[in-house]
Amino acid sequence: MKRLLHWALAAAIGLAGVWLFGPTSVLFKRAVAEIDVATNSPGAPVVVELFTSQGCSSCPPADELLGELAQQPGVIALAMHIDYWDYIGWKDPFANPELTARQRAYVRSLGLRYVYTPQMVIDGGTDVVGLHRNSVLGAIEEAAKERKALNVSFSREDGGKVIIPAGHAPDEGATIWLAVFDSRHETEVRRGENAGRKLLDYNVVRKMTPLGTWSGAAMEIPFDMAAAAAGGQDGCAVIVQQGKTGMVLGAAQMPL
């Protein structure tokens, strides 16, 4: 029954995607321009996590949207490739069970009933279907109005470090996540729902590591940028998040 629910949801989202994802309209270009203005507010940057899979026929338009968002100032756009669709004919080369576990944690923290793709989570607190451009843009604009609790940053000094200032931490503390990602991948899909398609993926998270817990004190956490770059990745982001997958308190990104 759960599988039938997943397929019904995927089919409904796919039908919606046919209508929503025609050629880029003047309205959408204007909406993206409005994000530029909104994310220059004190609340920036906004973290957008897309849970996606190359095995999902509804996901490519959401992947494209994430690529557009990744170019916007004040938006940290990250693609989290999950593994639970690998069985339907194509094994996503970027799928990571740890990212699937992260999505399932969001199901619990956001009070959802099940996981699905494409899902976008905005600043850890809002769940949006990744196909719905207007809903995604609206959620980002609303999140950008909120002042973040922390002004997180990276420094290249001493080989690299994450800098977190002192502040008021939530009672349960906050997890400091480090995401290392590839800015772009192009994949020829040979099987499954996207067979015969050339898929473009952006800001593909390859590893997401907890660096520790923030409890209110100022922190400087060493981060070996050279080692991360040697692994082939070209970007990194730090996210300070209430609990483990709660509201984002502060975030930053930097090329490697």
Give the topology, please.
Blueprint (H helix, E strand, L loop, with lengths): L1 H19 L5 H13 L7 E7 L6 H11 L5 E7 L15 H13 L9 E4 L3 E4 L3 H12 L8 E3 L5 E4 L9 E15 L9 E17 L4 E4 L2 H6 L4 E8 L5 E8 L1
Parallel strand pairs: 1-2
Antiparallel strand pairs: 1-3, 3-4, 5-6, 6-9, 7-8, 7-10, 10-11
Helix pairs in contact: 2-5
Describe the protein's architecture and organization:
This protein has 256 residues and is α+β, with helices and mostly antiparallel strands. A hairpin with a 5-residue loop joins strand 10 and strand 11. The chain has one domain: Glutaredoxin (3-Layer(aba) Sandwich), CATH 3.40.30. It is 29% helix and 32% strand. The N and C termini lie far apart (45 Å). Helix 2 packs parallel to helix 5. The longest helix has 19 residues. The strands form three sheets. It has a four-stranded mixed sheet with strand order 2-1-3-4, with helices on both faces. Strands 8-7-10-11 form a four-stranded antiparallel sheet, with helices on one face. Strands 5-6-9 form a three-stranded antiparallel sheet, with no helix packed on it. The N terminus is likely disordered.
